[in-house]
């Protein structure tokens, strides 16, 4: 356990050093698998150098953030980054799907649309079977019923 903690501490210190130190970090948070840094100077981190750190799976630049992909041990590494840089802890980002909480007015048009969408959604999976059945029907129409009866007996 001590060895793992030392590995997380070394990884946290190394990441902080490679992204420009605590002076370059405006804020840091994490999600399920990534450390998310808001940096003062986004040009400082060298992606290849950060990727070489043992335990780092990759890096991304998205949404104005510098994201270091760690994996399932991100909580431990995050704690070490915050401790080694004396940074303020932000709340972790919870990645949930946005739920539409708006109430939709019930009109004849919306009800009809919903019913047709449900019917279309349930019939879509059987389209390949209908196509295959129609191909067999076409084959019977072209060859006639006699050759099929000969093979069947």
From TrEMBL:
SUPFAM superfamilies: Glucose permease domain IIB
Catalytic residue list: 31 (phosphocysteine intermediate)
GO molecular function terms noted in the UniProt entry: kinase activity; protein-N(PI)-phosphohistidine-sugar phosphotransferase activity; protein-phosphocysteine-trehalose phosphotransferase system transporter activity
Domain annotation PTS EIIB type-1: ranges: 9-91
Origin superkingdom: Bacteria
Recorded GO CC terms: plasma membrane
Main location: membrane
Keyword Thylakoid tagged: no
Protein name in the entry: Beta-glucosides pts, eiibc
Gene source species: Liquorilactobacillus uvarum DSM 19971
